[in-house]
Every structure is written in structure tokens, then in C-alpha cells.
Amino acid sequence: MDGIGAQEVRLPELNPIELWEQSGRAQTMGQTLFRLADRKERGFVLGPTHEEGMSFLASRHIQSYRDLPVTLYQIETKFRDEPRPRGGLVRLREFTMKDAYSFDAGWDALDVSYAAAYEAYVRIFARAGVPVVPVAADSGAIGGKESQEFVFLTDDGEDEILLCPGCGYAANAEKADFSPPPAVPAAPLPMERIATPGQKTIAELASFLGIEQRQTVKAVFYKADGEPIFVAIRGDLDVNEVKLKNALKAQDVDPMDEQMVKRLGLVAGSASAVGLTGMKVVADPTAVEAANLVAGANEDGFHLLNTNHGRDWKADLVASIGLARADDACATCGSALQVRRGMEMGHVFKLGTLYSESIGVNYLDEAGERHPCVMGCYGIGVERMLAAIIEANHDANGITWPASVAPYDVHVVVLNGDQEHVDAALNELEAEFAKAGLTALVDDRPDSAGIKFKDADLLGMPVRFTLGPRSLEKGGVEVRDRRTGETNVLTIGEAVAAVRSAR
RNA sequence: CGGGGUGUAGCUCAGCCUGGCAGAGCGCUACGUUCGGGACGUAGAGGCCACAGGUUCAAAUCCUGUCACCCCGACCA
Fold first, then answer.
1. In the prediction, which pLDDT does A284 show?
2. Interface confidence (ipTM) of the complex
3. From the alpha carbon of A345, which nucleotide's C1' atom is closest?
4. Using the CA of A98, which nucleotide's C1' is the nearest one?
5. Strand B contact nucleotides, protein CB < 7 Å
6. 8 Å CB contact between A231 and A244
7. CA angle A181-A186-A188, nearest 5°?
8. Quick check: A139 and A378 in contact, CB under 8 A?
9. CA triplet A131, A137, A139: central angle to 5 degrees?
10. CA→C1' distance for A96 and B5 (Å)
11. Which nucleotide comes closest to A422 if you measure CA to C1'?
């Protein structure tokens, strides 16, 4: 971060609620905000992220285009009342985030700051020994125009990632574009009502009629911010709820509950938009473009042959809301997409002027005109990254920390430390560490050597020094590389110098 | 919030089905031996069986409720 000219700061965790009302997120973040009140009943929130705070800080200092660009960052605790904390360090109510925010004069300038942060992230993950894949992502509750996640691929991950082996396209399933299989070409035929007793699912219906699933329309019911939504999508596809939410510009999209389905008189298993009134109809292009699709007749046990959009029904909104799956065609090059699971390590966003407008971060340009700053924000989950570092750097005996992120440079196992000459050598060693600016974890417990060696392996500092009567006889300390097991006996001075130069 | 699971010694767990003395391994304490890749012997200490009710002659065990934690879904770094 410092390397790209970012400035470290530290913001309060305790924020007045007014700041969050100003940005509108007191409402939009809803339940995930930890709220509290002081003795005078003034409202506060514990910061779940710091777009508001950073914008407020920036608004006090940025006046002219000459003040820009500015990137501020901090490494600080965030609080989120998560619906379900889980997985040890993977999802916490209280976690540490490295969060950075850039302020620029215009979108082109943001692209430069964004690219710099992006490149810095690539270097950070490489140095920490965590293999990540940058993927296109949905920006979720943070908002903004464009965003990319850095994803650590692991079967334990919470996210589904689609990867294109052909062109390198990579995206979170929430966001992923793809080309649905083509429709079966046909000229429109007259609509026809037929009996389909007991056929509830698309698979049943298709095999009952001897047609392909892509020759049907699937009806799915949702509730978007309390409003009923009827979704029509070709039978061979599933709905991506994130895309649906974005298309509707809704805050919350959930599958419709049974009471609501009943109240609205919807016939699950035989529903369609033909003749439907009283609710908004959202259609995927696949349902609109194909001809002669089989749809529900809105009567249990009956379906309609040859329904056609425009003639028989009409969508209020047409938007791509299909969920990409393994083996779907890449939208760019047509190759079959692959699916992997992954864990989100970091996320970079082009925020735009969302917060600079609501909080009031403005600058005067060369012409003396006032504009809101164009912002970007960049986060890394520290605990989550810790989990990934260990996942990516361990062997059967324990952790194998990359030197760049090891808690200590050296693990010193002291044997027979009660012997005077061993103790004297240890004092000398510690003095050398101090002089060299190295940190050491010294194990001088009166336990057996085996226990201490096992613990050293488990904790996994990159280098282990063994200091005892036997090593001193051989001329100093035994130096052992945690990963390779390579062992040498060196003098105290040589050993410390070797670690220092390797760091 | 919906679904599933678990709460017993410091830790990991058995015991619960089929009610009847509170258990094991590890750890801990003492002594002796051992001592550079998780040693051994002997002797010990250690419990409101999550909590609150109920059933019963008798409850860790059966029933009801509460709480906490873990796992699966919606949220995200």
C-alpha cells in the first residue's frame, strides 16, 4: 500500500449513526449493522466498513484537483452482525480488514488508482504465499460500478467460481456471464392447451411431452422488497438471484413464501405469465426469444403448447438473470466453463461518486467548477487471509510459514538451558538477533527435545535454531530449514547473518 | 430466520438407546529412572453430567422448556 503512495490512517470504530443515515446505509445495511446508544440515547454504529468515515475525513481535506489523487488505508477491526458466523476464521462478527479508499478527479484518474491497487494486491498475495485468481464480481452492499475479487481456490470455499480455460475469463457465479444454449428454431404456431396430469417439474414435463427442457418456460416466484415478482426463464436454466436483484434494483430478493403463493393464486408446477395480472413479470432473454415454448396453463394438471412472448404474454422487464453452470459456454470465446470453489480474500471496487456525493467530498477543477471525487475502495480480510496462508502453506507436521508473513523469523529450541555455557550462548544469540533486527521465539521449556521439535514443526517458523551442549560442541547452533529439512551447524554470528540475508 | 447436531474432568470424548457407585486417553501434581524427534514406573489431585422444571423409590440417562456452540441454506473481507 505504501508502495503505491497510499497513506495510512486510523479511523474511529464508533461512528455516529447520522453519518450512516447520510449515506443511506443505515437502512440498506439493515441488520448487519451493530447499533448501540450512549447514555443520552444518541445512536452509534460499530463500523462494518469505512466508506462513510473515510469520505468524511477526505471531505475535510480535499478542496482542489491539486489535492488529488489521494489513497488512504487502515488495518482495523470491522464489526458485522452476520447472519451466520462460521468456519473458524473464515466468517466472523469481528474481523480485521485492510481497507483502502482512493479519491480521484474523474473516472480516468480512478482507473489509474484502481489499477495501482489491483497490482499491489497481486503482489501482496504473491508475497504472502496465497495463490489467488482475480475474478469479476458483484459489488453487493458496498455498491459501485465494477469490482473484482481475489479468490483463493479451495474446496472449503463459500463461493462458486466460473473459469474459462479458453480465454481466461473468471467470475464469481453471482456475476458470471455465459451464452445459454441456443433455442430450438421454429415458426410460431397457435397456442394449445393440453392435459399434463401430475407433471410438476420441468424434467417431468419435458420427458412427458418428449421434448427438450429448453423448449419449456420455467416459472419462479420471488419476493423483492416485499413485492411479488414472477420470473420466466427457459426451462433448462436456473435463476441467478443476485442478477435478479440487480435487475430489479431491489435490496432484498427472496423466494416467495408459501402463504404469498397461495394468496396470489399461483399454481406451482403449472404457472406461466400467460393471462397473469397483478404482479411484475421479469423474463430472461431466453424465454423471450425462443418460439413455441411449453408453459404452465395456471391450472393444475394443464400446460400450454406454443406460447410466444409478445403474442401470448409480455414481460415488464427483460434482463439476463440466468445462473452460469459448469459446461455452459463462455460468453467471450464459447469454451466450456469450469466450476471451482473459492474463498474471497480481497475485493476491489470502482465506487464512483456514491459516497462522495452523499457525504460531500468535492473538489474544484481547473475551471473552478465543483465536482464530487470519484472513489475506489479496496479491502483484504486479514483473518481469512491467515486461514488461506496456512491452508496453502503446510505439511504433515504443521505450518510452513512463508518468511514474509511468519510471526517470528526464527524458532529457537534450547536444550539443557540450565547448563551455564548453553545459557551464555543463548544470551549471545539473543543479542545478535536484536542487533540484526530479527525476531525469535525461544523455547526454553524444561521439556524433552522431541516435544520441542514437534512443537517447532507445528508452529512452522521458516528457520529453526537448535542450541544445546551438542550443537555447541560442533561449533555453534544447528540451523534447520522448516520446508526442506536441510540442516547445518553454524557459528552464532554466521547463523544470524544467514537468516538476515535470506529474509 | 429455516433445517440438522452437540453440551459429561483443564482438553478430546465414552456412558444415554435399555434409569441403579461418575468413566477413558491426554494433560496436571509428587518421587524415581530417562533426556537431541511427542519416554517410563509408582502414587495422587481433579465433576453442580449446560441451565430450569417434570416423571420416578431412583435421572448424566426419560419428558418439556431455555441458553450456548458447531454444521447446511440467504449475507460478505
1. 94
2. 0.85
3. B77
4. B77
5. 1-2, 34-39, 70-77
6. yes
7. 125
8. no
9. 125
10. 30
11. B36
